[in-house]
Amino acid sequence: MSKKEDLALMAHLMRRAGFGADREELERCVTQGYDATVDELIDPPESRPGGDMALMLRYHPSFLLPGGVPYSGQANWMYNMISTKKPLEEKISLFWHHIFATGNSKVDNCDQLLEQIQMFRDYGLGNYRDLLVELSKNPAMIYWLDNNENHRDAVNENWGRELLELFSLGVSNYTEVDVREASRAFTGWTIAPKIPRLPYGRFPWKFEYKEEDHDDGEKTFLGETGKLGGEDIINVIVQQPATARFICRHLYNFFVADEVQVPAWTIEDARDEDALEQMMDAFIDSGYEIKAVLRLMFKSEFFKNARFSKIKSPTEVVAGTLKMVGQYRNPDPGMLQIGKEPTYMGQSILDPPSVEGWYTGHEWINSGSLLARINFVADRVSDSTLPGIQTIIQSMKSDGVTTPEQLVEAAAEHMGFVEFSKETRDELVENAKAAGDLDWGNEEVAATRIGEAMALIGATTEYQFG
Amino acid sequence: MTSTKKDPVVVVLQMTGGNDYMNTVIPYNDPLYYDNRPVVKYAQEDIIKLNDEIGLMPNMGPLKEIYDQGKMAIVHGVGYTNSPRSHFRSMDIWHTCEPDKVGTEGWAGRVARELDPNKENVLTAINFGHGLPRALAVPGVPVAAIADLGTYGLLTGISDQTQRAKALDLFTRMYSPTVGGSFVTDYLRSTGTDAMIGADIVKVAPERYSSNVEYPNSPIAAHLRDIAQVYMADLGTRIFYTQHASFDTHAGEMAAHPVLWTEISQAISAFFQDLKEHNTGENIVMYLFSEFGRRVHDNGSGTDHGAAGASFFFGDSIKGGLYGEMPSRKAEDLEQGDLVPNRDFRGDYTTIVEDWLGLDATPIVNGNFEKVAVLK
User: Fold this and answer.
1) By the number of CB atoms within 10 A of the CB, which of A285, B21, B211, B365 ranks highest?
2) In terms of residue numbers, what domain contains A9?
3) Is B278 buried (19+), middle (13-18) or exposed (0-12) by CB count in 10 A?
4) Cα A59 to chain center, whole Å?
5) Is there a single domain that holds both residue A252 and residue A151?
6) Which CATH code fits B9-150+216-365?
7) Closest partner residue to B88 among A104, A355, A375, by Cβ?
8) If pLDDT is split at 50, 70 and 90, which confidence band does A98 have?
């Protein structure tokens, strides 16, 4: 493979397993090797911290406990996405947030939602069974799906149902009786009485198992009979082939290529049945380890061949762009705004519209969100004071980028080795030709032209894919 | 058949944060107002009296002028049962008309869909401000979101106008429909084209606008001026949506509340003044609401989340006055210390959707709710 191909493939990996990487990082990873980089992403060295929380909190203490107002919580998470040294950990948290979608619209407590995201960081790459147990004990989730209202003598099926329908098996793989039995099994899994908010403010919520409120009668769930409790239900769930299929299809949809919307999964075949089966085998054979599935997936041909087959989510547009241009590497003033940017594009993180999460793929796109995406990228890449743009300009200068063709080519490479249709490329080159060759004698003008070239690339249909 | 009568237009102004109803529309002769508000109250002599019982907080002078013209209606006790008193949940309920589950379609987006089912006008509904409120969000319904009319558009970061014109030209070509593309690419292209068309159409609005009216210097005044410009440019927009914040006065209410209402009152006054000077605006109804009122008893510096609130209607077609009854302030009549709503907010929407816009409200607001007779 040519050097450029290696870099392009690495850019694809870093975009999917994280939020992108600049040329320097890509070079380092290519030198290290593709498989070694996958391993490093999946098992980062112990010494690698995530985002620099201590630094962030020194300048923005309110981001630690955002309370009921999501903005500082969103900015907190965005900063982690941009600055983390463990990008896959952050990306998998976003993945689980899509699936186990819990929203501030009801929870009204971003402190707890951030705690849930931390739980995803800690457990999201580990064993899926363990993750489900943690999720069942997560106070934000318990409150979101009313399991605190699920009592021995008054069963509430919200959690039991969504656990089966959205978090593990998928519809049509269980009966209404199973929903009821699962719900009975989770009675007593509740939140300890909360310390009142006045006068000292919010205190953390805590999981509590209330034995006396637990229905310990005999239950039959998916063919298993016994005095089943919540963990027993989870043990049965993870053994079902339908669970392997559902979770792996979600992983495929998020990391490999856009599938149809989830409600259609019972009637539409998987985009790549063979790939899905490989992932399912890894899931089952490893005893439900997410890392095993990801390792197989990232190293597979079907993944390597899936460049630009996903519409980038708003979060990926914002985090990826900010990483690329080098903004908010430090917790600079104005950081509160970055949490809101994905919201303008249609994704309010920590506040999904429902427990079903967001409609992804092409449904991220509407006239408002498309303008927001294009303008956001254009505004950032045209700002030659930003460190990342500075690096790109200097890189082009030392590479001797001169002709309009070279300008478009180099800009596309720096923006992730974007691949254009012939028509798009011709249009971009035509446009660049109008101003002739780059004149490095006048660096300011050259910088402006580079910024414009990159802004136009950001406006292409091709660039909406990642 | 052609009609010279203009299509009805609605302007929704959302007061975000929970406006203090009892301290805005004030029962100034009720001892309970003074008993419950040792700190957070206005002096009786400063309150703008509307009748023997009800007055307006002191900074609403400009709105009182509109009230005296008979063009301002104040509706008492608006809300819904079992309010969770959570900002985001309550605002969602107001936006989606779904109190019992998390709704996904906004009422105003549904209205836009009814008014323009074939998406002939991408500017049928516009939000002025960042992002898109859930009230306007319905899959498939194009809604423009204009943070600032002067800078709205595609690639506005390109300062050189010639360069920008070329960029837009290029964009139009790149996004024009093709044959044989994938579904997603086709969808991207048509969406991009809609967005460009919308931005292209709406840019004439500031160009056509000139006015002697001076709007005050506040974000809400800027949004209302943008709305006036787009309205007067006659681009077919039927729903304008905007918001002002933050009314969430848990503390320091006596500092914040007067500022908020000064800003709102002056902005609305300038808006209608502007329309009047241009001899237009007779087909506009403006609706003000907040996601809940606030607690009857103050907390020593501000007030906490409540339930019932007031809503406001403005316009030439409005029969001015006070509507309904303010909920009882007696302790035994309160719920969790809050005024109990006595009319459902979806009745306000029904009034707008049926009586003003002439549409069937039931599918839009998810039910049948009692209207309020504010329209002539």
Assistant:
1) B21
2) 3-42
3) middle
4) 26
5) yes
6) 3.40.720
7) A104
8) very high
